[in-house]
Write a structure and sequence with these properties.
By secondary structure, this protein is α/β, with parallel strands linked by helices. It has a single domain, classed as Divalent-metal-dependent TIM barrel enzymes (TIM Barrel, Alpha-Beta Barrel), CATH 3.20.20.150. The chain has an 8-stranded parallel sheet. The protein is globular and about 50 Å long. It starts with 8 loop residues before the first strand and ends in a 5-residue tail after the last helix.
């Protein structure tokens, strides 16, 4: 069997340099990336940009809008025993799912936990997520849950829910910090993966360094990726170091693009 990687390459629209969104997108496109992702809140700057205007700004720049990442304030309330707390967060997330449908955004990335001190996952949370999934199916939008500090919650939900409208956004830095390079989650649910957040770190802090600048074993990681099933984007979620901030954003993005190509090349090798 011949292995190849034709994955398109993306990068988060906020890559650490303070520039107006249109200028950042122009630089992303010029660096060679095909796609970007958005944090789904208004952007305060000069000028201020309403999130409702961002999808067209992205597309006008020649980039694909791969997904949005919604805020995760109070996401623990998905699992709350208090019905009003659950309803409030479900209603908020439902609004953002409707935004995805309105602006033709195919995937909504979300966190299902924030705190590390939650009890075991429960039926309240499953009911909350099931309500959101019903909306997503009706709107033809995919929900992607991102691995954060409580990977047991991710395992629990992905084991219970099987739907073409529900998947996994794999974050390499979160996995390295909270699981000490244990790739069981990725290997177990690789067939559910619909998005990636790839970056590196020192094993202690979520630095969002460029791949290859920390301690993540990228050959081991890419061997665990679903090379034959996953046809989504190889997307970086990276920020510059203090030293890199002294250089130009163009130079940083050029280096980021080369690292994305490197990961794509690793993905083209058959698993060992």
């Amino acid at each position: 069997m011949i292995y190849s990687s034709n994955h398109q390459l993306g990068i988060f629209s906020w890559f650490g340099f303070v520039l107006p969104l249109p200028e950042r997108l122009k630089l992303i496109k010029e660096a060679g990336f095909n796609a970007t992702t958005l944090w789904w809140e208004d952007e305060i700057g000069s000028p201020n940009i309403k999130k409702d205007n961002m999808p067209n700004i992205v597309r006008d720049s020649g980039l694909v809008l791969e997904n949005i990442h919604i805020p995760y304030d109070n996401c623990d309330n998905l699992w709350s025993e208090n019905k009003s707390s659950r309803d409030a967060i479900v209603n908020k997330y439902t609004t953002w799912l409707n935004d995805c449908a309105k602006y033709n955004i195919p995937i909504m990335v979300m966190h299902i936990t924030d705190s590390l001190n939650l009890p075991s996952p429960n039926q309240y949370g499953m009911d909350s997520i099931s309500r959101l999934l019903k909306v997503a199916q009706d709107l033809d939008v995919i929900i992607a849950i991102e691995n954060t500090g409580r990977e047991d919650y991710i395992s629990f939900v992905l084991s219970e829910i099987k739907s073409n409208y529900f998947g996994f956004c794999y974050d390499s830095s979160h996995n390295r910090i909270y699981s000490n390079n244990d790739l069981t989650l990725l290997k177990t649910f690789s067939n559910c993966m619909v998005a990636t957040h790839l970056s590196d770190n020192d094993g202690n802090k979520d630095h969002h360094w460029l791949p290859g600048e920390g301690i993540i074993d990228w050959e081991k990681l890419t061997n665990a990726l679903p090379k034959l099933q996953y046809n989504g984007y190889i997307t970086l979620e990276v920020y510059p170091t203090e030293q890199q901030l002294t250089n130009t954003p163009k130079l940083f993005l050029s280096k980021a693009y080369q690292r994305a190509l490197w990961i794509r090349d690793l993905c083209s090798h058959p698993p060992k």
